Structure formats: structure tokens, C-alpha cells
Amino acid sequence: MFRKFKQAIHWREEQQKKPGVDLSSALYEQLKYFRLPLLLIQIFLLIGTLGFFWLEDYSLIDAFFQTAYTFTNTGFGSYKENEFGTITIIFTTIIMFAGAGVIAFSVATVVSIIGNGTLIRLIKEKKMVQKIVRLRNHYVVCYHNEYTVELSKHFRESQIPFVVVDNSPNFEEEAKKYKYPYYIQGDPHTDVVILRTHLASAKGVVTFSKTSADNIALIVSVRLFEKELARRPYYIIASADTQEDIERLKKLGANSVVSPTKLMAQRVSAMAVRPDMENLLEQFAYSKDTSLDLEEVVVPKYSWMVLKKLKDANFRSITRVSVVGITQKDGTYFPMPSGDTIISSECKLLMIGTGKDIRETKRMILRRNKPEELKMTKEC
């Protein structure tokens, strides 16, 4: 029963949610500078305790107390200091000066380490990595710029988890300014950063570097990491300015390459040709308030629709969804297909309708046998 209970609450899965990279060694590297001050404090406390224990016939606890307030110079007169002999007075003076020196050295060490900022940064980064490791099917967005800022807004509105990575020195301030929920500072293509972003559980990667070499390095690193894990391919989206860079990134493994310059030119051209249609795409495709949705649905090999006519599905009557385009497996696109169009295996149907209706249509397409509602419609 206990085993079933652990499976029900995914206990084992939670136990295995550990960061892909351990920052403990880096933290210990910073904390090692505190070892000498702590060691000196312990040594002088031990020497003082044994000294007062032997010189003044104190008990161990009294000797330790005498040493503590003498070493820290925080008080005097609690015990019989006025009865100290010459040797004890000299010994006490040594303890006092040693205490002042060790405490000053300890304070300087603490201020130096904290002022350096590395220790604080590592502690924050460790906490961030522990949060990121809980993510599943998230996107890793690389390189912070104006595109990243806008994308983060849309991701938050769509409740898509994401991690932003950048190597600029002031990236932490920028991440807080633009309210990135998860972020890592470092070079995105390095193994350490890949592990810290928990890429093993990610859905895809988006790279917005304005340098083609950075995008290339990242795509290659992600594909190599993908092969090491022997997992399903990541969906990689990249940006490029020239057609040459677009083709190069696609050859290297990018699934989609976006050209901001080209997109802007297309949008401005459409506005110039048809000013009345200026806001149609924005309101329809990108607005979260619209009830309509536009989505591509893949017809699997086992679907009952394979080699059937489009009109046999009768989507418009049953699910109130319209098919406005078909993309064949070889990439050929047919806009506004007729009802007599034959549905081939692994083609993509471009559908328009509400999100709920499109989900219902997906369920119909994924069935192996013809749905009962279609049979009833045909009989009627």
C-alpha cells in the first residue's frame, strides 16, 4: 500500500528532481577563505582556556568564559582579574591583543568575500537552479534583447514556462527589471549552463543572438546534448538577418528561423497595400481575447481519415471547424482545399475555429476507426 501511495504522489520522481549541475563545489571554494579566521579563533580560545585553567586554577567553564570575553574585548572584571599574578597579566594581555587582531582579520575577510559578490551570486544561482529543476516542457530563451523582452510577455500570458540565459555582466538587473521568472547568467552554449537550465526536461530552445556565430554554437551544442540523452528532438527557433544565415541555421538543425527584418518588411508591405487589414492579423492570430484559433493538425498514419475525402470528415457540421489549408508531407501547400481533396498520411490540416472545437477535431482525427457521430450524420 505504501508503494502505491508513493507512486500516486510521484514520490520517486520528486526524489530524482536534482539539479543537473552541483554548485556546492563552487560555494565551498568561496567559503574556504573563512577557514583561517575560524581556525585562529578556535586556537586562541583553546590556548586561553587551558592557560587560565592552569594559571588561576579555574574550572574549564570558567576558564572558557574568561577567555571568551578577554579575547573579544567585550568586558573585564567578571572574575578575579585584580588577583592575577604577573604571568597571568602578561598572558591576558597577549590574549587581548591576539583577539583584536584575529577579529579585525576575520571582519576584513568577511567584508572582502561579501564585497566581491561571488558568494552571494552563487547562493542566488543555487536557489534559482533548484527552482528551474522543477520545470517540465519549458523553453530556454537565449540572449537578452528587445525580442526576448517581448517574447517573455507573450510566454507569461500564455502560461508557457521559460528560462532566460545571457552572459552580460548586468543581466541579473535586467532580468529583475523585466520580471523574468527564471534566469541564468552565463554563455548559453556551454555544458554548465545547459545543465543549469535543466535542458533535459525542456521542450525547445529559442536563440535571439544578433551574432550568427552565437546561434550556430548554441544549435550545435543543443543537438549534441540531445544525442547524448537519446531523447526526442528539441524544437529550436533562431533569428537571423540574412537569407544566407537562415539557410545555414536550418541546415545545422534549427526547426524555424525568423528574420525580424523580413517580417517587418512583410508587415509594412501588407499595411501599404491594404491599410484596412492592418490590425486583422494582430487581432486574430496574436490577441488572447479572440475566441478563434488557427492551428495545424497532423494526420497520423493510423488515422481513419487517411485516403479519405475531406468532405467525409464533415468537420464544419460536427465540430464547427473549417480546414483552410493542407500541407502535404513533401511540403506542398494547398490553400482552401475542396471537399473532394484526398487526405494523405502525415499531412497537416490548417484549421480555424475555437480552441475547444479544434481540440475535439484533433480527437476525431487521432481515432483509428471512423467516429460514431459521422456514421449517424451519414445515416441522417
Mean pLDDT: 83
Structural class: alpha/beta
Number of strands: 10
Low-confidence stretches: 4-17
Q: How are helices and strands ordered from N to C?
A: HHHHHHHEHEHEHEHEHEHHEHHEEEHH
Sketch the major β-sheet: 6 strands, parallel
Gross morphology: elongated
What count of domains describes the coordinates?
A: 3
CATH superfamily of the largest domain: NAD(P)-binding Rossmann-like Domain
Spatial order of strands in the largest sheet: 3-2-1-4-5-6
Helix count equals 18
Protein name: Potassium channel protein
Organism: Helicobacter cholecystus
Transmembrane segments: 33-55, 87-120
Keywords: Ion channel, Ion transport, Membrane, Transmembrane, Transmembrane helix, Transport
Account of the protein in words:
The chain has 380 residues and is of the alpha/beta class. It contains 18 helices and 10 strands. α4 packs antiparallel against α6. It is elongated and about 115 Å long. It starts with a helix and ends with a helix.
How do you describe this structure in short?
Residues 282-367 form the RCK C-terminal domain. With 380 residues, this protein is α/β, with parallel strands linked by helices.
